[in-house]
């Protein structure tokens, strides 16, 4: 069962993902070094005339074209240095069926124009959208050279088995994801779902990528095997606390919160490595844990802004999903309260996010 709920806020207004995805941009930039090394290794081994590249979970807004544009720039810079011919890039942008691809496609003429202005002798690129879940097959056998995916693989294909809203005995009362106080059963449900999904992802990509092809994945993760440390749980705990505040005032039914779990899981690097090793078709070139600023605030703004800024970012990612379950009418109130909870957290801790970046090579 695919979760139709996972979708970013469409369009380009002030509350859209397009206008509130700076943190995800920071994650793309944080994985830049590994992407550069991987694409240069690939290019300088075979000097291909064509490269098929894909961004899995591209979403919408400026980030959707950022990852592929960085890859093309790196290759072009290298081939200019070497005096080689342009490479023809076939760029695939993948996301779920209900993603706002229209906003991405509308940006394409400007994207091509900017590339041409920057480098009139740049390589040509042909961009197409590929709607569908990356937990299944999307491309023919051995048709891809380079795969990237940023800030997407922490989204599970479904609410973990045992935690779905129809299940009678709610295992995670008052919470909407793994929290500091969740039981080990809740943790296993999430962890097992991640392993099933990530394994399906790796198996599919293994068939689609050429031998020697490269894949760089970045996703939210954890440094420690223990998932219930405060740093890992605070974003969704703050959101759950805001919902519980509203329940205590009779604005939300508590049962609605008890029966709700978000299909989000930030794995430990060991879990990621286990799946890759078990599949056996990819060699791990590098794995890094990087800390990313979750809130980028202009200098001069005080800390009170931080919590509300972070709530705005989270709203662009979570509102469509939460509105389906709790109703659109409570969203302003909910995210305002969540902002207050974030402020309280940020007064004690530095708001950083932990990401796993892993660079893989398809074995022969
Ligand atoms: C937070 S956004 C990140 C988007 C973009 N890569 C960026 O860096 O800004 C996560 C994206 O992953 C997509 N996604 C989640 N699960 C997916 C799946 N199973 N298949 C394809 N895309 C998926 C979501 O729809 C969403 O657009």
Helix content: 40-55%
Average pLDDT score: 92
Integer tally of domains:
1
Q: Ligands bound here?
A: S-adenosylmethionine
Task: Describe the global form.
Answer: globular
Computed over alpha carbons, the radius of gyration is 21 Å
**DSSP strand tally:** 7
- Low-pLDDT runs: none
Number of helices: 11
Give the C-level CATH assignment: Alpha Beta
The H-and-E topology, N to C, reads as HHEHEHHEEHEHHHEHHE
Query: What portion of residues belong to β-strands?
Result: 15-25%
Assigned CATH superfamily: Vaccinia Virus protein VP39
For the biggest β-sheet, the strand order reads 3-2-1-4-5-7-6
Distance between the termini: 33 Å
How would you describe the overall organization of this protein?
The two termini are 33 Å apart. This protein has eleven helices and seven strands. The longest helix has 25 residues, at 184-208. Helices cover 44% and strands 18% of the residues. The chain has a seven-stranded mixed sheet, sandwiched between helices. The protein has helices at residues 22-30, 32-46, 63-82, 101-106, 108-118, 184-208, 230-248, 254-258, 269-279, 303-326, 331-346; strands spanning 50-56, 88-95, 125-131, 144-150, 209-220, 282-293, 352-362. It has a single domain (22-362), classed as 3-Layer(aba) Sandwich (Rossmann fold). α6 (184-208) packs across α9 (269-279) and α7 crosses α11 (331-346). With 364 residues, the protein is α/β, with parallel strands linked by helices. It binds S-adenosylmethionine. It comes from Acorus gramineus (Dwarf sweet flag). Keywords: Magnesium, Metal-binding. InterPro entries: MeTrfase_7, MeTrfase_capping, SAM-dependent_MTases_sf. This is Jasmonate O-methyltransferase.
